[in-house]
Amino acid sequence: MCVDYRQLNAKTRKDAYPLPRIKETLDALAGAHWFSTLDLASGYNQVPVAEKDRAKTAFCTPFGLFEFERMPFGLCNAPGTFQRRMERIFGDQSLQSVLLYLDDVIVFSTSIEQHLQQLEMVLSRFQMKGLKAKMSKCHFFQKEVQYLGHRVSSEGVATDPDKISAVENWRVPRDVTEVRSFLGFCSYYRRFVKGFAQLAAPLHQLVANVIKVAKESRKRPAAVLPTMWTEECNHSFSELKRMFTSTPILAFADFTKPFVLEVDASHQGLGAVLSQDHQGKLRPVAYASRSLRGSERNMENYSSMKLEFLALKWAISETFREYLLGSKCTVYTDNNPLSHFQNIKLGATEQRWAAQLAAFDFTVHYKPGRNNGNADSLSRQYSDQDVPQEQPNQHANTSSNILPNVEKPVVVAQQQIGVFPSRSPDDLATLQGADLTIEVFLSFWKRGKPPNKEERLLLSKDVKRLVQQWDRILEKEGVLYRQVTAPHGEVYAQLLLPMCLHEELLNNLHDKHGHQGVRRTTDLARQRCYWPGMGADVENHCRSCQRCVLSKAVQPGVKTYQGTLLATQPMEILAIDFTLLEPATDGKENVLVMTEVFSKYTQAVPTKDQTALTVAKVLVDSWFNRFGVPKRIHSDQGRNFESALIRQVCQLYGIEKSRTTPYHPQGNGQCERFNRTLHDLLRSLPPEKKRVWPKYISQLVWAYNTSAHRSTGNTPYGLMFGVPPRVPADFLLGEGTTEDTTSSWDEWVQQHRERLQVARDLARKNLQQAADYRQQHHNQQARDAGFTEGQLVYLKDHQCKGRRKIQDVWSPVLYLVVRVPTESGGPYTITRADGTADVRRVHRAEMRAAHLEILPSAPMTPNPCLSSSNQDIPVWRCQ
């Protein structure tokens, strides 16, 4: 059970009772040969609460109000109170035969007989004061024991060997990402390692070589790295681990000074680094890391804030407990909400963690992730396949005679950093000298004159481009820069950037800088660095950035070539669609629009829903029974129009069914255009009539049908029925006519047939001309490079409902184009790139190219949905 005592703790005057200093406590064990350790069971709960103070511990439950009679967990003064009580009980034996550190008790002696007497004394006082120990955590008559994070024996006090694997057992990297993670961790403390650049140079060069070979061979970097991991790389990796788990990197803890704790959590594991300020420089005292357990990997239960809170609780109350109890500590986390956890509402689990942390004196501050690389790297050294470790891995230095060997002060945590904040001029000069292009240029620069004509013939294209910048190159502290003047007059010194740092720079300026476009990313890079071909490299990086591809719309937007839907006679094609309006007083808000494509004659029927049954009833009652059965019905791919019921209706009446491509309403343009007209007509109604719009919709549709249509030059009514419509105005003006009176019925029929034929021929001509004009006007503005068979594409993501202003535009699932349209504006045929889905037909506007590396040698997965003519199209794997 856990009670949230944050408000009580905030108003409590802190108890200044000191905890024992660990160094002095361990020094008292000198000369002892026998040890026993005892751990009290729920030690705080064994301390009675004064009756006058019990009301302060009150908490409310559904069963009433309760108070603690024993000291609960979560009170800020609990450690001092408990330590005071233990020293009152064993004060006469403290540091002589017993060591007390909260609920951890160690009994030590020089002989077995003396040890028996001392144990009897300790246990008798336990019994007299009503204290209970936890048997599973007690160890008696030991030659060597674990106490306060150290291994204690007759030989002295040493670092626990089980607690040095966080760095010492860092596994050999398996891909470029893991190499970069290790280098990022080491770079955080590189100022404490003399000659770090030379020591890490093989790993930096390895990253550059692997990326280059992977691009040239079109293989995954993970497949290339093992073949390029040399003995030199292995020596560099092992030496760096050795340096970071020994002096002078690690410092011993000084309990008179405050601590600095940096924590981080990822979906791979937890990481923490405990540090202290030594002579103005932040030195690590201990490292810790562990992988996530099964329940902690559930992203539904563990949000990013909860994971970071777990790392905070684990680091303070479990891993570095003996260091931080009784000491002030400043905690840095890259999760901003966690820095306010004392003032926000917490869930049940978080409240339990907060109660465990209440005994510690610490403050939490936000520190951006880019500045928290040491803890971040430790949290990410585990993969999803790694077995979770039950015990955290630590490495702490207990040596008391450490001579610091440092070269530069630590950068303040909140200070804004540059692209490469921790690289000294010596480091940069070393990396420039190791670069294949800059190394050649340096040979000419050091001799003081550029290459002659004969020498230039032997140079690569990139070196020649550097030589062309000779007059702009300057040297500062052994590092080469290019000096340029911006259009506004500001002068920049651009670092000649080695290839091994290109990817890191682009990640910092693009991936970690808001994923801005090519122009802005290029401007950011040009203000800082230069290398031959930088503009093309920036553009390729931005184009291949999957986060940008999935989250951004294509600019400028795709405007495809337009197709047309034409009919040559009435009742050839009936287009149907729903439009949704404001609810009327009778509850109706849907309108089923039915438009005869040739004549443009339209019916609009209000409905209460959009179900397939409603569609079938309206088609039969409001169209088939009045005007006859069309040859074809055209609609979008709504479930109501594609249902089994509508298929049965079409089969019963012998009607062909056609459909638009998904999410492309322009494919049913006739209905979409009438919907706009209908909205305009309804909008013109007075406000009182708009509330009962179903009563007036038939009159408005009649007005539309009896007005000349621009595409045909005739009225929809006239083309549909062959006679001009009679409107109320005709009665007002009289029935004037210029036609001759026919003498017989047969003569009237003949004249009517001729006039109707002329009207429909003219309508066909006008329809074709109008369609050609629209298509030509549209296609002049078309922007569509099109796709080819075998090309990888993404589809628009329509799964997310509701507001989508900050949602990804494209789905991350890759598709393969298996057939291109034979006519402009037609649909593409695609299938899943992994071959697991059926063939789909989609419009060009729903697709965008996936700028990814492909593997021509990838195994092909045949898709049974493809025809035999397309079985030779491979299914590519993406890098």
TrEMBL record:
EC number from the UniProt entry: 3.1.26.4
Classification via SUPFAM superfamilies: DNA/RNA polymerases, Ribonuclease H-like
Protein name in the entry: Gypsy retrotransposon integrase-like protein 1
Pfam families membership: Integrase_H2C2, RT_RNaseH_2, rve, RVT_1
UniProt domain Integrase catalytic: residue ranges: 566-724
Gene3D superfamilies membership: 1.10.340.70, 3.10.20.370, 3.30.70.270, Ribonuclease H-like superfamily/Ribonuclease H
Keywords: Endonuclease, Hydrolase, Multifunctional enzyme, Nuclease, Nucleotidyltransferase, Protease, RNA-directed DNA polymerase, Transferase
InterPro entries listed in its UniProt record: DNA/RNA_pol_sf, Integrase_cat-core, Integrase_H2C2, Retrovirus_Pol_polyprotein, Rev_trsase/Diguanyl_cyclase, RNaseH-like_sf, RNaseH_sf, RT_dom
GO terms (BP aspect): DNA integration; proteolysis
GO terms assigned for molecular function: nucleic acid binding; peptidase activity; RNA-directed DNA polymerase activity; RNA-DNA hybrid ribonuclease activity
Enzyme class, UniProt record, top EC level: hydrolase
Domain Reverse transcriptase, residue spans: 1-152
Similarity-based family: Belongs to the beta type-B retroviral polymerase family. HERV class-II K(HML-2) pol subfamily.
Ranges for region Disordered: 373-402
Keyword Protease found: yes
